Predict the structure.
Amino acid sequence: MQKEVDFRKILTPGNVHELLTLFSEYPDSLLFAGGTWIMINYNDTPAGFPEYIIDCGGIEELQKIKRTERYLEIGALVPLSRILGISPHVIPPVLYSALSMTATPEIRRLATLGGNININSSYSGILTVLFAMDCILEIRSLQQSRWISISELFLKTNKKNNLIPKDSVLTRIRIPSANWDFQVFRKIARKKSLMHCSLTFCGLAKTNKGILSDIRLCFGALGNQLFRQRGFEIKFLGRKLPFMNRTIDILLSEFGLLINPVTDRYSRAEYRRSTSIRLLKWFLEEINQMLL
Amino acid sequence: MSIKTILSHKLKGEAIFTDDIAPDNMIYGYTVRSEIPRGTILSIKIPELPGGYICADYKDIPGQKFFSTFGEEIPYLAEKKVHYIGEPILLLCGPDKQKLQCLGEQVSIEYKAETPVFSPLHAPEENIFDIVTYSKGSFSGLKDNPCVSVKDTYTTGSQEHLSLEPLCAVSLWNEKSIIIYASTLYPYHIKDNVALFLGVSKKRVKVIVPDVCAPFGGKLFLPTMIAAHTSLLSYMSLKPVKILYTREEDITCSFKRHPAVMTHEIVTDEEGNLLGIYADIIFDAGAYNVMSRRIIEKAVFSAFGMYYCDHMELKARLVKTNKIPSGYFSGSGEIQSLFALECNTYKIAQKVKTDPYIWKKKNISLDCEKRSPPNPGKYSSCIAVIDEVVRISDFLRKYGAYEAIKKPGECGTVSGATPRGIGLVLCPHIIGDFYETETNTYTLTLRLGKNRKLKIMTSLIDMGTSKAAYFAMIASHILNIHISEVIIEKTDTDNVPDTGPTIGSRAAYNIGKCIEQACESIKCKEKKKGYPIEVTKKINLPVKNKKNAKKIPFTPPVITWEGTVVEVEVDPVTFITTCRGIWIVLDPGPVVNDEIARQHVEAAALQNFGFATMEVLEFKNGKVYQNDISEYTIPDITTVPDIHVRFIQNRAGIKHYPGRGLGDQAVTGVAPGYISALYQATNNSYTHLPCTPESIMELMQNR
Amino acid sequence: MKITFTLNGKKTTIETSPEKKLIDILRLDLGLCGTKKGCEQGECGSCLVLINNNLINSCLVPAFRLGGKDIMTIEGFSQTKEYSMIEEAFLKKGVTLCGFCAPGVVLSIANLLSNTSTPSTGEIRDALSGQLCRCNGFLSLIQVVVEVFRIKNRKKNAKRS
């Protein structure tokens, strides 16, 4: 009955080197990590699986979590549920919120952090946070291994479902330790577990002697790509706190010009636009409030 | 099986659903559907079919090509004309599901498209399936004198039942007769229609209903179409055939709740005394008229609710559009028009600066309560229900507090606190309504054996164990036997009589009454006769109050009262709402089982809450837009608010069980309550269900 | 491909195509129909099974991931002592379900039971958040879970004394 699919081969590398060798040998193969996204999306056409599937489940070196003073390092194959299991003091609260609002507990047991990044969905709350935190990714191919910042990758890719270059594999994720004075993650969805949402927002801010020394503002689900612009963030830096109402208004109207939200079956462009502006305003006012 | 065993079976995963049935040599069926909303089929190109694969269209149907509903007849397979996207045109069957899908996708159909009608407001005259008008006094003359009025146009969207078990049927034709397994709420509808469809006598069609998941009456008529499809394929291939709808097919091609557009107006004098009500209701029936009269009758009754006054005017229409047919959905008709009515009463109370509780009490017409037989009139359930719900929810204090702190004209509070609102709804439920007619001969049979074990034989479907438990409790109460001695016979048309459609309030009241009567006759016979005693009873038309029926259109035989309070908080940044609590008080008469009744109410309240907040189902060019379980969102355990349920068990006028029953849709007050609460919290009048943060924002900005 | 795993305590070997979903293997090849197919997208929770004691949607696991795994379906779990506690709680609370999502609900409770001692309402809600149900308003399920833990602790205390 299943004759035409019987030729399919499963390759099971035991370490990263084997993975890279196999991947260069079979560049059209499918990398199977947690597999949740693949299993859902190949749902209608199981015959659509490629000939070779590389099952990464056995690569233990990519399932490690390491912590140093400068960063938290997570292997690409670490399931989301395991990250949530780390002590809450270690994992940034915004990442914790984003993870706990991703899918159901059962799916979080399968889905991996690397997989979530690789899908490159603009709806991903996790990506919104990682992008805001300027995390860096280790990308490896047989030829080279390099650490590249997530923002650089975003700049390079325009394609929707492919953040990692085709010949390479995402192996580790480093989240820099930084003491943010304010950090906020919000996800607006009909239910928190839904991937498709109206908006995600991660806001981070740092102050020094009454001056705003750093700020990160990242929005997800606004359009086809995540929104974060360093050029816009820089306009906040060095400003004396609390922000004056006039400053807030000017920055908000500038922000309004930068975003280009879309309408889809989950939400409407007008809602995304005005809510992201209100969320930003709220975030800035929160900073003011906390200083009082 | 006893009730305890049934529950244990379900928990252990031993419950057998239709998809769990797989006879030897079974093959699968596939439905090729219309891709356009309206037009004529010019040609159909079918790919070359490998051995073992068969194709069927309307020409292959040996007998009748249409099946009956409570409305018009619907074709099993489109002949020439198609009326909605998803209308079945062609069937394929074969052993491999994937291959079948590939073949199905290769079928190419050429159409001559016609201009579709998507909005009932823009439909031509000939698209009106049914129309009802009513008038009393002179509503239009009211405004000649000083008065206060509130008029708004309300709209409600489509709603999907989203039964977790997708639609499924399996048919086995054995040259002479056919056995059909189907996930349905109305087995005899399949039996009768498939017999005509195949052109065989009814005796040769046997319908077995395994366990079924069919919340809110979602599987009333459509399963007949699927069962006929599998039967035709089995008849042609001489093999058992199964059709299992995919989740997407289930959402895009099953009958939905009727969307509605309602213009509703209330006029009072300056003191808030009700003078008149006007309602204009338009239902979107979709491509076929599935049960028009019943929808309209319920809507007409609910458009006035308990407020009967001297000047009333009403027009209700059911209009054909080129979308999925609207079918039966718990609370059909009443849920829509009660939404318009109760939102308007809240607004008028605010306008005349009375609180809604006082306004309602002042304007309730007790005359309306009296006309429904088990409501005796001396004691008013309706007043008791509203008093109790106001008490347990602390409505008056909260309402006053939220009024005091709100900033006039915007979404915010003077204290800077998060805006909150609280809504109050009082509504009647139609019980034991219009499904019994003089021509129907629905029956059920009870048999008391020598060992005093009672067997109940009915074609009513028992989802969960609630109905079984409910019937068993009535019987055990009257016959004085233990519940475990009551056995509900499995649903197989060879062994159980036709009891008609399985619909919540009908099962509770009409069938419950019938079981009560049958038990009474067994009790009488037991004294005179030996065992076994078998009694077959016709499901009787509930007594109609003819005197009042003249005064008021479509007076239901029995009414249950519901009082609901909903408290809501709105985030002024994102307009996400949090429901702080729902309080529901009902008077269903004596409650047979408190626990089961409470669960029934909670599930209905949650569905109503979903309808009010998140169950968005839109159409784009006639096609269901949210076609996936992750896109059509229903409430889950993380979104369910605290629901507090109380029963007032007024026994007056009631001999045994059942008293009045819980109603077809046990709760309809959550949606208007929620919208009323939002009205108070944000100073804005929302008129569409579901009301999402997006719609709240739009109104806030367009102000 | 040939795959060997432990199913409900029994070593099982099957011949299957590698990408076949566990749910189809269970239902079609092994005739274990207690695991239900509601959406095939990991949204509804009707197909939950325990794999190496972790609660997983069987519609999201392909055959090639099953080698050497210990799989427990509702058919196996219903033979355990933990199951009888859960059934006792359902009966005591008089909770009714249509039976389609029930196996998933039971296994979700089982999973919570093996990971927590006395869960808060929030934890209960989170544990059952992968479960959709239209026949029940969820609130009674929360009460069932509370009752299960009451039974468990009672039994534990009885053992101690």
User: Anything to note?
Assistant: Chain A touches chain C through 26 residues (CB under 8 Å). The mean pLDDT of chain A is 91. The CA atoms of residues 114 and 154 of chain A lie 15 Å apart. The first strand of chain A starts at residue 9 and ends at 11.
